[in-house]
Write a structure and sequence with these properties.
Number of helices: 8
Order of helices and strands: HHEEHHHHHH
Structural class: mainly alpha
Strand order of the largest sheet: 1-2
Helix content: 55-70%
Mean pLDDT: 81
Strand content: under 5%
Largest sheet: 2 strands, antiparallel
Distance between the termini: 39 Å
Number of strands: 2
Length: 137
């Protein structure tokens, strides 16, 4: 398609769940030391130029847990519903897309995208008890 495939597309191609694909992709991310010396003369360390955007351990665990639970919820949807929601909300690491852009990307009619969006949201609302603790905080 001339672009990096989404997690959903990879999952469909290899007959796996999106969660399994995400775990595999995350397992092979190379680690980089914050003490890595950078610059032409190796005069700086990576940690000195990165902004300090640290979050507490509690916030980190909550975010990781939310992402995992959200992936599980999205995996319960039909593939086209999941793709539409991921693209419209920017959940696959890309920018949010409009319904028109999603229709073009997925080669669907605008009405099919609206329908998949509505059905997907409706299905997720039925399962909102699984994430209500995140919504309250």
């Amino acid at each position: 398609m001339g672009r990096t495939p989404t997690v959903i597309e990879i999952a469909e191609a290899v007959d796996a769940s999106p969660k399994q694909v995400s775990e595999c992709l995350n397992a092979f991310c190379p680690l980089v030391s914050l003490e890595l010396e950078i610059g032409e003369e190796q005069e700086n360390q990576l940690q000195k130029i990165l902004p300090d955007e640290t979050i507490s351990a509690q916030e980190y665990v909550a975010l990781e847990s939310l992402q995992s639970d959200l992936q599980d919820l999205l995996a319960t949807l039909k593939p086209n519903q999941c793709q539409v929601l991921m693209l419209q909300f920017g959940l696959s690491g890309e920018n949010k897309l409009t319904a028109k852009q999603v229709a073009q990307r997925l080669n669907l009619s605008h009405s099919k995208v609206r329908s998949a969006y509505g059905q997907g949201i409706k299905a997720l609302r039925r399962e909102q008890d699984k994430i209500k603790d995140y919504l309250a905080s």
